[in-house]
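Dear support,

I submitted the protein below through the web form. The confirmation email said the job was done, but the results page showed an empty box. After a refresh the structure appeared. I'm attaching both so you can tell me whether what I see now is the final result or a partial one.
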Amino acid sequence: MMRIFVIALILVSFSSNLHAQKRVKAACGDKVTGEFTTPAETHIYEIALQANQIMEAKIIPTGDYLNFRTEFFDPVNSRIIYDDNGTFNDANKRNLEVKTGVLSGRGVYKLHIHNFGYYGDGGRVGLYTIQFTCSTQ
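What the results page shows now:
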């Protein structure tokens, strides 16, 4: 009986450190509405891009209290952009724009949007919109 309790306690402590994830497929030109419904969520937008493209995502929260940060990963899951645009430190900065340089490879890139800070701070719920635009160099 004691062994089962210890295993259950270990599983609960590991699962409490995990963040909810939601995956969404997106394309250049898409305008998507997202909603954070739990305090520690990550939304992962998967977008197929080509070499010589530049991708820009404009993320606009609804209301005054939603903060977020982003990470952008290449097709082999190497992080190439991290940005919070100061939204966790400055209440006047509400919108976040993520713009890549000229991409060198083709494949599925991933934009992670987190409603919590790098150290787990934040975590408010709310709606936002994201607009994807792409151009070719």
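Response: this is the final, complete result; the empty box was a page-load delay. The domain at 19-136 is CATH 2.60.120.380 (Jelly Rolls).
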